[in-house]
Write a structure and sequence with these properties.
Blueprint (H helix, E strand, L loop, with lengths): L2 H10 L1 H34 E7 L4 H12 L6 E9 L5 E9 L2 E7 L2 E14 L6 E10 L4 H17 L3 E2 L1 E5 L2 E4 L4 E2 L12 H13 L2 H6 L5 E7 L6 H12 L2 E4 L9 H9 L5 E5 L9 H6 L1 H4 L7 H9 L7 E7 L17 E4 L5 H11 L5 H14 L5 H8 L6 H6 L8
């Protein structure tokens, strides 16, 4: 049987003809399916833009809140409860609704944007115990500026809620988290330091913040360290809080005596501190003292955690230390600090915050009783100074609290200020 005869027989066979037709249809559908997939990939690559924001990014919560108020009107929501402290100390509760996990749509400047919020069920942040999440925004076109505009609006809206407040952060694991409620900014004038001292520190830090190029052009590391030392209750911590409010900075409080604080973790925390923040190391002498004293008391010198003294020095000004950082240290005992810790480069400005002077006593009197004269303020300050030259501002303020509306009572009982 020839080949032509065999082919003619297959053509006339109805079963073969039907099978060949099915194969052809299947092949055609496969080609169309593959073509549509390739076409969709090309369409998404060239005609659509996508932005993914992970939950670890600072803009993640800003974006969700902005979408809930300015974008989607979805009925599927998640709640985020926040608290706000009023001037009287009363706590107000606020419920913010954000899009729940799933797919949502909203319109922005005539552009329809698809929002997909994904929550991982098997992965979570080991430090917070919160599942990892991502928010993906997809829009038609190739103009990426639309996403930048949305992020900027989300950032601006979020920061407006914190306007007038100072946010305090504390180290939790390997990240910084807000601690307590945002505090209403404290006016810098409410902390009465000795004449010219407040302006000196404020002027120095403003000059540092405003001149990054000066440091870069001269090859000087762009960071600044300050040490405030002196007796307790004289205004060191209060001044730093007020200074942060004046600069619109937050404060990151770090306890060097914390158990589990290692050299690597300290380095990491200093490098990921929130932008525009002051890193505050309070009572630095409690963590590390002078090596001369350490030789006499070796058991005291050992830190409670795994942090080493060399690790602290390297974190402050080592090769891996971050740029643009502002560090404030406080201590009640300057003589206990190792000279290596407070040398220039690690501490650029040292200021004594001492017991109240006659100038400070007068200013405190006038701040509590602004209707009184300078002469009466001078009478009070001289009376206190004649009794003791070692009176802290905390003592003076506590004394004034007993005579809130009685300036004459303050003057008549000035001797009681040393009993507070």
């Amino acid at each position: 049987m020839g080949l032509s005869t065999l082919l003619d027989g297959l053509k006339e066979n109805p079963y073969f003809g039907a099978g060949f037709g099915l194969v052809g249809v299947g092949a055609g559908l496969a080609v169309l399916r593959k073509g549509s997939q390739v076409g969709m990939v090309l369409f998404r690559r060239h005609c659509m833009i996508t932005m993914e924001v992970p939950s670890k990014d600072k803009s993640y919560h800003w974006l969700l809140q902005w979408i809930s108020t300015h974008g989607t009107r979805t009925q599927h929501l998640s709640v985020e409860t926040t608290f706000q402290q009023t001037d009287s100390g009363k706590i107000k509760t606020q419920f913010d609704f954000v899009p729940s996990p799933g797919t949502h749509f909203f319109q922005y400047k005539r552009n329809f944007i698809r929002v997909e919020r994904n929550r991982e069920k098997t992965m979570m942040n080991l430090h917070s115990g919160i599942p990892w999440e991502t928010v993906t925004l997809t829009a038609l076109g190739r103009d990426r500026s639309i996403f930048f505009e949305i992020l900027e609006k989300a950032r601006t809206t979020a920061l407006q809620k914190q306007e007038g407040y100072t946010v305090m952060y504390t180290a939790m694991g390997a990240e910084w988290r807000p601690f307590g409620y945002p505090r209403k900014k404290r006016p810098l004038t409410s902390v009465v330091l000795d004449r010219g001292l407040s302006d000196s520190i404020l002027g120095d830090i403003k000059e540092f913040i405003g001149n990054p190029q000066w440091y870069s052009q001269r090859g000087i590391p762009y960071r600044r360290g300050y040490l405030l030392y002196g007796p307790p209750g004289c205004g060191k911590s209060s001044f730093i809080t007020a200074l942060a409010g004046e600069l619109d900075y937050s404060i990151c409080v770090l306890n060097l005596s914390e158990r589990g604080l290692s050299d690597d973790r300290l380095n990491h925390l200093l490098s990921v501190a929130p932008q525009q923040s002051i890193i505050l190391l309070e009572d630095i002498d409690a963590a590390f003292m002078s090596r001369d004293l350490a030789a006499e008391n070796p058991t005291v010198y050992q830190g409670m955690g795994r942090l080493t003294f060399s690790g602290l020095l390297n974190a402050l000004d080592g090769v891996a230390s971050s740029e643009g950082r502002v560090v404030f240290m406080t201590t009640n005992y300057l003589e206990r600090l190792d000279p290596a810790l407070i040398r220039p480069g690690r501490v650029d400005m040292k200021e004594l915050i001492n017991y109240a002077t006659t100038y400070q006593l007068q200013q405190m009197f006038l701040r509590f009783y602004p209707e009184q004269s300078q002469e009466r303020a001078a009478v009070f300050s001289k009376s206190v100074f004649a009794l003791s030259k070692n009176v802290s501002l905390a003592q003076v303020q506590g004394f004034f609290m007993f005579y809130k509306d009685d300036p004459q009572g303050v003057i008549d009982n000035a001797q009681k200020v040393i009993e507070v």
